[in-house]
TrEMBL record:
Record-level GO BP terms: nucleobase-containing small molecule interconversion; pyrimidine nucleotide metabolic process
Protein name: Cytidylate kinase
One Pfam family named in its UniProt record: Cytidylate_kin
Catalytic function, reaction form: CMP + ATP = CDP + ADP; dCMP + ATP = dCDP + ADP
Homology family: Belongs to the cytidylate kinase family. Type 1 subfamily.
Upper lineage: Bacteria, Pseudomonadati, Thermomicrobiota, Thermomicrobia, Thermomicrobiales
EC id: 2.7.4.25
Length: 248
């Protein structure tokens, strides 16, 4: 981080489909901050493991792969619905990591303690870049427990499934609501019961129910919390740009 720069870290956690990405990206835009979803690193790892034939239960090989992972995340270069670009070894994998298969594999590979330890350093390095809105499932409890602003977004399982179904439909993927409900319920169970960094709200997180609320209403609620808890929110920045992520 540049000396004298205004540091602002907003941690947004919640289960899949709770609105973290949509809300987080808009909050970051209004704060002049970089937006980053930590799930990206697990999705990229899952994609790379799939391409290299590494099983999702092979913790040792996955951890080795994670230690050498090199990703670049930045503002969207194409207006095709993406919230940001994700590059892996020089290729755009933004949509390749957003398939139902990668959804499933990312949850499996993220359950391994060695993998989470290897990728934790990448996530923390990004959060130290100055002004960042970072979304995930354990940001406020593990990745950035010292973040001045911690938000937990809640939504019912049925509402989250409807949102996921709409997102998939926009990409030409047709799935039944019942199938998506079952998948999300299974993922919730895995995320909440894993041995390391289980999904749960931080004790000092502000919990926001996103059911029956518009995106704008949720964004404004988050911004109100940011302004209350962090004076830095009033100092905009034009520095949000491409963030290279590479394991040390």
């Amino acid at each position: 981080m540049v000396a004298g720069a205004c540091q602002l870290v907003v941690a947004i956690d919640g289960p899949a489909g709770s609105g973290k990405s949509t809300v987080g990206a808009e909050v970051a835009k209004r704060l002049g901050a970089l937006y980053f979803d930590t799930g990206v690193v697990y999705r990229v790892l899952a994609l790379l493991a799939l391409e290299r034939g590494i099983a999702p239960d092979d913790a040792e090989r996955l951890a080795q792969l994670a230690q050498n992972l090199s990703i670049r995340v930045g503002p969207p270069s194409i207006q095709d619905g993406r919230l940001y670009d994700v590059w892996l070894d020089g290729r755009d994998v933004t949509w390749a990591i957003r398939t139902p298969e990668i959804d499933r594999l990312a949850s499996l590979v993220s359950a391994h303690p060695p993998v989470r330890r290897a990728l934790l350093r990448l996530q923390r390095e990004l959060a130290r870049n100055g002004r960042v809105v970072i979304a995930g499932r354990d940001i406020g409890t593990v990745v950035m427990p010292e973040a001045p602003v911690k938000i937990w977004l809640h939504a019912s399982l049925e509402e989250r499934a409807r949102r996921r179904q709409r997102d998939l439909a926009r990409r030409g993927i047709v799935r039944s609501l019942e199938e998506i409900v079952a998948e999300l319920a299974d993922r919730d169970r895995r995320d909440a019961t894993r041995a390391i960094a289980p999904m749960r709200p931080a004790e000092d997180a502000v919990i926001i129910d996103t059911d029956d609320r518009t995106i704008e209403e949720v964004v404004e609620t988050v911004l109100a919390v940011v302004r209350e808890r962090c004076e830095c929110a009033n100092h905009g920045s034009d520095s949000a740009g491409v963030a290279p992520l590479a394991a040390p």
